[in-house]
Write a structure and sequence with these properties.
alpha+beta; 3-stranded antiparallel beta sheet; rod-shaped
Length: 520
């Protein structure tokens, strides 16, 4: 026979379970605006029915329910959407870094504009044409010297400005490496906290949220693969326990390296193995990145990585195959090659000409520069700035005022192909194409294409990341309307369970106080 007080226990379970659901609803509402918070729910489960199976079971027609219990408090989260978001977040970090770096480069180069190198060169060529028409004119000679210095100053400005921005990006690389190490340390700490809770049969949902938020931040910096590992010696862990995070750096296509490169290592056999710190390896002379040291592994395959750190390294520069790679080293190298070839050939022509009224060839370099940094050090020979009559405009002895052949040769350098330069070695010629004007136009054109491409890719990745995040929020975020509906639902269920207790109490009152009083 069933217990007289059985109904009280069933109603009590209903009250306690609905109360737990109300508390969870309140927790959701309180954290509606908390970054990274995932809404939670109580998983209601029926308690074991009465009677149990056995020889001495009461002979009643079937089993009766005995109420409800709160099985687990579960986060509502879709791991596939997390994976999609982190993939797009990695791309967003990479293209964001590249776009910002190339935009700064465009602002420095400032083409087309009145103050850019193209415009300054145009003024220089025009000044040389004027000189070829009026070789005896002191004003025309002064303008050539002055505009020549303007060309040198513009190249100096480009080199120095690009170098300063490159240095800033290099500092950012160091900051991002420190940020990665800090995030990894925090995730490892959370792993250890979670490992102290899950084996006891609990689900530390708030710790899960904090850990996932850190993984989101980490995925923007470097491409990672996250695997939840539940160790074999984990005690009484729930089947839905998220386990400990093993975090691995993977290639931009999601494939693992061989051997795997782990930031946090976790195994099923022993649980948390440890963490690996990321360190920058640089060439002491050039300052360029030569590799990333992750634990005991030196990594140099930057072209296979993605994320903001990779975007910054690709901008700042790294060494691969004995040469400098990256947006800023390559741009500086192109400017140096162009400045060196231009100055050498211009000097070669100028030295073999005659100054006004001179009986011997000039022998003077028009431009002076350091072979190691031509664009940074280039300047007009101070002798010519002090006395422009020494500019070698004539091609024949005596430097007659009507002799403009050398000035014309200097002006024609504008359209002269690098392959026809007499001052360059074959190796130097092989690294340059076209004329000075066309080569520089090609540099600017390529910069514009690369910058627009990075901006377009950034825009696309932002759109995709935002789309995935909206889908993720639709699953995981707190909806106040839904929570208010649940609150009313659980409140009514709680009140109904309380009313049930009142009904059972009245029944017991009749049994206890109303039975056995026959004849009163």
């Amino acid at each position: 026979m069933r217990s007289t007080f059985m109904g009280l226990e069933t109603a009590r379970r209903g009250m306690f379970t609905q109360q737990s659901a109300l508390y969870t609803t309140g927790h959701n509402i309180s954290n509606a605006n908390t970054p990274g918070y995932t809404r939670q729910r109580i998983n209601f489960a029926q308690t074991e029915p009465y009677p149990g199976v056995g020889m001495n079971r009461p002979q009643i027609p079937g089993q009766m329910g005995t109420g409800v219990e709160a099985g687990t408090v579960q986060r509502i989260r879709e791991s596939f959407l997390d994976l999609q978001y982190r993939t797009e977040n990695t791309k967003m970090g990479y293209y964001g870094a590249m776009s910002e770096s190339l935009t700064k480069m465009e602002e420095i180069m400032n083409e087309p504009s009145e103050n850019g190198l193209h415009s300054t060169l145009e003024k220089f060529w025009n000044a040389l044409q004027d000189l070829s028409s009026h070789t005896e004119n002191t004003g025309a000679r002064d303008v050539v010297a002055a505009t020549g210095q303007m060309v040198a100053d513009t190249l100096n400005y480009y080199h120095n400005s690009l170098s300063r921005v490159q240095e800033d990006i290099g500092n950012q690389v160091g900051v991002k490496v420190d940020e990665i190490n800090a995030i990894v340390a925090q995730i490892d700490h959370l792993n250890k906290q979670i490992a102290s809770v899950e084996p006891h049969g609990y689900l530390p949902n708030d710790l899960y949220d904090e850990r996932d938020l850190l993984v989101d931040s980490l995925s923007q910096l470097v491409n990672v693969k996250v695997s939840g590992v539940v160790p074999n010696t984990y005690g009484d862990a729930k089947p839905m326990a998220a386990g400990l995070y093993n975090i691995e750096i993977v290639q931009k296509d999601g494939k693992s390296y061989n051997p795997p490169i782990n930031l946090i290592s976790v195994t099923k056999e022993s649980g948390i193995v440890g963490t690996n710190k990321v360190e920058l390896e640089k060439n002491e002379e050039s300052g360029l990145v030569t590799g990333l040291k992750i634990g005991s592994t030196s990594f140099t395959q930057f072209e296979t990585l993605s994320g903001e750190l990779t975007g910054l390294i690709n901008s700042y520069g790294y060494e691969a195959g004995g040469s400098a790679k990256g947006a800023y080293p390559e741009m500086l190298d192109k400017l140096n090659k162009m400045a060196s070839a231009f100055a050498k050939e211009f000097n070669e022509i100028h030295k073999n000409g005659y100054a006004l009224g001179a009986d011997t060839i000039s022998g003077l370099d028009f431009f002076e520069f350091d072979e190691k940094n031509p664009a940074q050090s280039m300047k007009v020979n101070q002798v010519l700035l002090d006395d422009s009559s020494k500019i070698a405009a004539a091609a024949e002895k005596g430097g007659a005022s009507g002799d403009n052949k050398n000035a014309q040769l200097l002006a024609d350098l504008r359209k002269k192909s690098f392959s026809d330069y007499t001052s360059l070695t074959d190796d130097e010629k092989s690294k340059l194409n076209g004329s000075l004007d066309s080569y520089y136009s090609g540099i600017i054109g390529r910069l514009g294409v690369d910058s627009q491409s990075a901006k377009k890719d950034l825009k696309n990745s932002l759109v995709l990341a935002d789309s995935v995040d909206r889908n993720r929020q639709s699953v995981s975020a707190v909806s106040l309307d839904e929570e208010m509906t649940n609150m009313i639902k659980f409140q009514h269920a709680y009140n109904a369970s309380a009313r049930n207790i009142t009904v059972v109490d009245e029944m017991l009152d009749k049994i206890i106080n109303g039975m056995g009083v026959v004849g009163r």
